[in-house]
């Protein structure tokens, strides 16, 4: 089935009779084909990907709903996604027209702090999901240190060793840091609702001036993990961090951020190759020498 037909089927799945007036492919990352669809009633944002698992977009939709339920942040409305038994893979969202706004970064900081105040009764997540196209196993944990070690650091280290991106000696050192990570991770942090992949490309400003979060990889855990990701590749100014700090009512402690960034560096190492190894090695050196 060609992409145009998939887009048409996606629009039909929205649950009401919509006539398509115009379809335009737009930029939306390097994972999916994305389309702005004008109908006789509204504009829709449609994601299509032929090469992902059947639950890929369902899990993205569930993540967006997790963020929405906090009542603290705005996300695109989930309108429809493919059934697991269907051969097509698509997600239909409300269209958010992105604008430039000088104050939206501070508002994002305030709203993110409010989202992080939403506390859950456990760490992890009751279902598996995806970050990019990488499947993430989760599970329900009563220990944040165990969850982060066993479901984030160690699986990525093992994958890198299997791919030959870490030699045996390197892998031993990285495993040693993962197993000792409890020395630096907080013992019992609030189990906050986290975006899970909060780099600069995963938020936008809508026409109303409000920040919107997109493309989540949700989990429940230490809020510092989200903040660490914002600092990894840049894109967030001091205004964002000051607004977050003021709204949260506590100073930002950054000592553990590199240990949280390590997971995302491993993910990029396994996805894009050895150019990320130097950064990973530098973090290991920082903590265990």
TrEMBL record:
Keyword Cell cycle belongs to the record: no
GO molecular function terms attached to this record: kinase activity
- SUPFAM superfamilies in the record, alphabetically? Protein kinase-like (PK-like)
Q: Does the keyword NAD apply?
A: no
Which controlled-vocabulary keywords does the entry list? Kinase, Transferase
Q: Where would one find the signal peptide in this protein?
A: none
Q: Which domain of life is it from?
A: Bacteria
The family database entries (InterPro entries) matched by this protein are listed as:
Fructo-/Ketosamine-3-kinase (IPR016477), Kinase-like_dom_sf (IPR011009)
- Which family is this sequence assigned to? Belongs to the fructosamine kinase family.
PANTHER family reported in the protein's UniProt record: FRUCTOSAMINE 3 KINASE-RELATED PROTEIN, PROTEIN-RIBULOSAMINE 3-KINASE
**Name of protein:** Fructosamine kinase
Question: Which species does this protein come from?
Answer: Bacillus swezeyi
